[in-house]
Amino acid sequence: GFYANLLLTQTPEHILTQTNNKIKILCELKKVHSGVYWYRWSQERQRFEFLVFSNTLGKATYGTNMSQDKFRVHEERSHSSYSLHISHLHPSDNGTYYCSISQSSELLLGSGTRLSVADALPLPPKTTQTPVSKKPVPWITKSKAASRKGPCSPLVWIPLAAGVLLLLLGLVPTAHRLYRLRRRLWLRIHRQ
After folding, report:
1. Does residue 52 lie in a domain region?
2. Nearest-CA neighbor of 106 among 157, 33, 165, 177?
3. What are the residues whose beta carbons fall under 8 Å from the beta carbon of 92, sequence distance 6 or more?
4. Are 114 and 48 spatial neighbours (Cβ–Cβ below 8 Å)?
């Protein structure tokens, strides 16, 4: 099985970058190992994808359709630190990347690095001087801001409410069947 472990320290936690850029993910190991595996959890494809395995001699074994041009593993210092370099980035590379070592037939996973690749990065807001006016500035309260977007947005709660409603409707026939079965048993016991 897969599980996160304190024996592996992975940094950074999140990377936001542009198409065609390259990035580096660092994995520090506090355990003797035979090499480092790198995996990607793809939200879009809902699966773990094996990228590359690098043994302690520096020999790399690549997963299906994974190329050396895109993924390279570098040993940072004396088998205790490895970095995954990903180049020619594209939005299809989005996902959470994990370094991993094998220990007694289990894979110990790092904490994961979430990679977001966009064609264009959002620009920081411009700081322009606005003329000072005597009118009071209408402040947006927290509740108003939350109602626009966030955990309580209609995009979240409408499908959630619909799902709960469907679940409850699915339980009605089951509850009715159980009621009828209980009644039948009750009648059978009291007839005897």
Report:
1. yes
2. 33
3. none
4. no
> Which of 86, 118, 150 represents a domain boundary (last residue)?
118
Looking at the fold, whether 95 and 180 belong to one and the same domain comes out as no
Please provide the size of the chain in residues. 192
Domain membership flag for residue 133: no
Domain housing 41? 4-118
Task: Count CA atoms within 13 Å of residue 110 on its CB side.
Answer: 31
Cβ partners under 8 Å of residue 72, min gap 6: 60, 84, 85, 87
Going 96 to 73 to 35 to 52, the CA torsion angle's sign is positive
105 and 31 share one domain: yes
The contacts of residue 53 (CB under 8 Å, 6+ apart) are 35, 36, 37, 38, 60, 61
The pLDDT, as a whole number, for residue 119 is: 86
pLDDT in tens, the chain (192 residues): 555 566 788 999 999 999 999 999 999 988 777 889 999 998 888 889 999 999 888 899 999 999 889 999 998 776 688 999 999 999 999 999 999 998 877 878 899 999 999 988 777 776 665 555 555 555 544 444 444 444 555 565 566 656 656 666 666 666 667 777 777 776 767 766
Residues 87 and 22 grouped into a single domain: yes
Predicted local distance difference test score (pLDDT) of residue 145: 42
Residue 44 lies in a domain: yes
Residue 117 — φ and ψ, nearest 5°?
Answer: -110, 130
